[in-house]
Amino acid sequence: MPHVPSVPPPRTVARAAARAAATLTMGCCEVKHWLIAGSVVGAVVCLVGVILIPVGNAVIESTVKKEAVLLPDTTAYKNWISAGAPLYRQFWLFDVQNPEEVVKNGSIPKLYQRGPYTYRTRYLPKENVTFNDNYTVSFSLPAGAIFEPSMSVGPEEDTVTTLNLAVAGAYSLIDHKLANMLIQLSKSTLFQNRTVKEILWGYKDPMLKSIMGLFYPYNNTYDGPYNMFTGQDDVSKVSVIDNWQHQPTVPYWNDPYCNMINGTDGSSFSPYLDKKKPLYFFPSDICRSVFAEYVSSEDLKGITVYRYMLPEFTLASPAVNPDNKCFCSNFEMTNNCTMAGVLDIQPCKGAPVFMSLPHFLHGSPDLLDTVRGLNPNSEEHSTYLDVEPITGFTLRFAKRLQVNMVYGPSKDIRILNQVKNNTMFPLVWLNETAALDDETADMIKAELFSRMSLLETVQIALISSGAVLFVLCLIGVCVVTHKTGKKI
Known about the structure:
The protein is an alpha+beta fold.
C-alpha cells in the first residue's frame, strides 16, 4: 500500500501559526522600541546643537567684550599700546613747471605730481600711559619719521619747485606793503626750489629768518595728551576720547557744535558694529571730528572687514551742509563760505593753511580752474577705514589729506602784480596708511575666528546628525508598524 503522509490536526497547525506570529510580533516590537529610542536620541542631539547656538554666541560675545577693553593683558591693549603693523606716510609733492610764466604773465600754474616719498611714522609706543579712577586711560603719542628709500621714487634730496611758504604766509597774514618790503630785502620769489626733506621737515627761510616747513616741528614732538575710556564699565565707550590736551572740547571754532570731540582716534571702535550707524573719530591734524559711513565688506587676509569712508559732504560748503558753517572763518578765500572741499585750519595751527582731500576731491570746480595737472580720483584720493566688525579693531586704513596755501593779486606786492585770480595752491598730499600684517592676522584668526568656526562646526554636526537620526528612526518606526499590522 502506498505511504500516505500524516496531516497534523487543524488545531496543531493553528497553534504553530499563532506561535510564529507571536514571535514575529515580539521581534517587530523590539525593533520598534529601538527605533523609537533612536529617534528620541536624534531629537535630543539636534536640540543640543540648537541650544549651543545662543549659548556659544553668548560665550563668544562675552569673550570678545572682555578682550576689547583697554586693560593690561587684553588683546585690545596689546594691539593698542605699541605700533603693531608699520604705519607709513607717503607724500606726493606738486612741482611747478612754469614758475616764470606765472609771475611775469599771470599764467595758470602747471603742476606735475612727484612721489611717493615714504616715511615710517608712529613707530614709537605710547608714553605716559596712566589708568585713572573714572575708567579712562591717559597717554601721549610721540612723533617720529624715518625715510624709507625702498618705498620712494627718489632720495629726500630730490629738488622740487614749489610755492614759497614765507611769501604765501606774508600774503595772508601781514600788510602787503610790509610784505613787499620783506620780499624785496630778502630777494624772495613766489616759487622756490627746495629739497623734499626741506619742504616737509624744515629749512631756514631767508625772509623770515626762521625755520619753515610743512610739518615742522615733527620729530621729538607729541600729539595729545589724550584721555580715553577703557570700556571697563561700558564696552560701548571703549576708546572714545574723553578729552584731548586736557580739554573735553577744542577751542578753535567759536561754536559748541564744531568744537565737539566725538568718537575715538580711529584706531578702534566698540565691538559688534552696526553697519547702519556711522563711526565717529577725531583726527587731531585737522582739529575737528568727522564720521565715516559703511560702504562695503572687504576681505583682508581671510578676515571680513567693513569698509567705512568719509561721505562726500564732509567738506561741503555750508550751503550744502549747514553743519559746516562754523568751520568757515575765511570769508574772502572761500567766496563767502560757498567754496566746497577745503577746511581753513589757521584757527588751530596758526598758519594760513587749508586742508582738503587730494587733488581737491569733492571740491568746488573753480578749485581746479586756477591750477593745471590735478585729476581727482575717488579710489586713489578717498579716506577709508577697514574695521573688523566683531572686535571693532581697525585693521587697515588710509588717511588722505592735501595741504594748500593761498596767494592772489596784489598791487602792493610786486611779484604778485600780474597774478589774475586767487589761487588755492596745492603743496603736497599725503597718504597715512597701515595694514594688518600676516602675524597679527594669524593671531586674530587663531584666537577668535578658529574658535567660532569650531563652535559652528560642532553646532552643525550635532543638528544635522541628530536630525538625520531622528528622521531615519521615525521612518523605521512607521515601516515596522505597517508590516506588523499587515502580518497580523
